[in-house]
Specification:
single chain; binds fe (ii) ion; Four Helix Bundle (Hemerythrin (Met), subunit A); 5 helices; 143 residues; elongated; mainly alpha
Length: 143
């Protein structure tokens, strides 16, 4: 797996799956650029699986810790998964269309990084805060 750079949030529970998702998205783009529809489909299926699994984990952590922004965060996940499935359908039906190529090299890459930066970074801070509160010193003794 190639390491593709993306936002580093400092929580391995997020950073490790994110790196895997970025790497798979990069594989989808590379296959699309070289017009390898079958390869692109295989990588996209792997990306959908990894993404669905990771989103479900994030959503479970958000629910368990009553994360205030969980509703919009969950909506963002749902829309992105829909987008992945639609592109998968198009890829299967019509191969590497200009729209699929644009999407694989553009919006797919941008969405993941944008979401990690704008949605997952605040979630990482929240999860760190909650964990520190549980295992650290009593709140009134902390600065
Ligand atoms: Fe997320």
């Amino acid at each position: 797996m190639t390491r593709v750079s993306g936002p580093v949030l400092g929580l391995p529970e997020l950073d490790i799956p994110h790196a895997e998702m970025l790497s798979l998205a990069d594989d989808v783009a590379a296959a699309a650029r070289s017009r390898q529809a079958r390869q692109a489909t295989t990588h996209l299926d792997a990306l959908i699986e990894a993404t669905a699994l990771h989103f479900a984990r994030e959503e479970e952590w958000m629910d368990r810790t009553s994360y205030p922004d969980r509703a919009p965060h969950r909506t963002a996940h749902d829309l992105f998964l829909q987008d992945l499935h639609l592109s998968g359908q198009e890829l299967r039906a019509s191969g590497i269309t200009p729209r699929v190529l644009d999407w694989a090299c553009g919006r797919l890459q941008q969405w993941l990084r944008f979401h990690m930066e704008k949605n997952d970074r605040p979630l990482a801070r929240h999860l760190e805060h909650v964990t520190r509160k549980r295992s650290g010193p009593p709140a009134q003794h902390r600065s």
